[in-house]
Amino acid sequence: MLSPSQNAGPGLRSVQEFWNLGHAVLFFLMGHLIYSFSPGLFLRRLRCQALVLGASVLAAGSVIELVQAMIPGRFPSFSDILVNLGGAGIYLFWKNRNKTGKKTIPYAAIACIIALISWPFVRAVSDDITAIRQFPVLADFETPFEASRFKSDTADYKITSQRAFHGKHSLRLRLDADNTYSGIFLHYMPRNWQSFSRLGFAVYNPQSGPIRLTARIHDTAHENLPSQQVSDRFNKSFLLTPQTWTEVEIDLTDVRHAPLERQMDLKEIFAFGVFVTNPAKDTTLFFDRIVLK
């Protein structure tokens, strides 16, 4: 809930993950308040303190996430609750640092908690730096964290060395036949595409027959609309030849003029996605070398 709008910034994760660490600070302070209002808690065994503090944090964190779920454009996050517990855990061990026989134990526990809750931020910073260095390549899956630039609720995906169009790796996408639209979106990327004329990517179709794949591109203005009409974004379908790589190129002039009542802002591209409509069965595709030209 403390995180900034996901529509802000250059489409990189590090700022969002940094703000997510604010949960740890908030619940560290909450731990201080709990001990301030219940001084007798400190006199109890560490296990009892942990149970009381953990239950309080879980209750408060769950209420925050439920409220967040009621706000349009915001979503509850289990990882936020873990960070909440981490912040309270840091206070717990700091408060009890002089009560244990070995004083290194609380400090070691604090260090471990900090490392665990900071890992998403460290990973995001690492891949954001890689993404900036790679640009205008948006993803070529040769580094370990590139899959985290993508989002999908309708398909499974992972980096694989099973096939590759460029380099040694690609992204394997398993489309779910139970979903009307099964696909994936690239969200975390540099958003200013105005200096380029084309978007290219390669897809391998291992099936015995062709597959019709739809590419979708929209900007921040479209993302902020209460009703995201198809007529306000770019959609185009491509036929994937069976058992070979298909190289797809999208003219960004077509993208700019895709909305019916305005021009798409190529300086603020919010997401690029691909999906298959009504897949007849669970289907696997491989994606590689997504690049602006």
Provide a descriptive summary of the structure in words.
- Helix content is 36%, strand content 25%.
- With 293 residues, it is α+β, with helices and mostly antiparallel strands.
- Strands 1, 3, 4, 6, 9 and 11 form a six-stranded antiparallel beta sheet that branches. The chain has a five-stranded antiparallel beta sheet with strand order 2-5-10-7-8.
- Helix 1 packs antiparallel against helix 5, helix 2 crosses helix 4 and helix 4 runs antiparallel to helix 5.
- It starts with 13 loop residues before the first helix and ends with a strand.
Would you kindly provide a brief summary of this structure?
With 293 residues, the protein is α+β, with helices and mostly antiparallel strands. 36% of the residues lie in helices and 25% in strands. The two termini are 37 Å apart.
**What is the radius of gyration?**
23 Å
Q: Strand count, sense and closure of the main sheet?
A: 6 strands, antiparallel
Helix content: 25-40%
Round the mean pLDDT to the nearest integer and report it. 85
Secondary structure tally: strands: 11
User: What is the count of helical runs?
Assistant: 7
Element order: H for helix, E for strand: HHHHHEEEEEEEHEEHEE
Going by helix content, strand content and strand pairing, the class is: alpha+beta
Low-confidence stretches: 1-10
The general outline is elongated
End-to-end separation in angstroms reads: 37 Å
Beta-strand share of residues: 25-35%
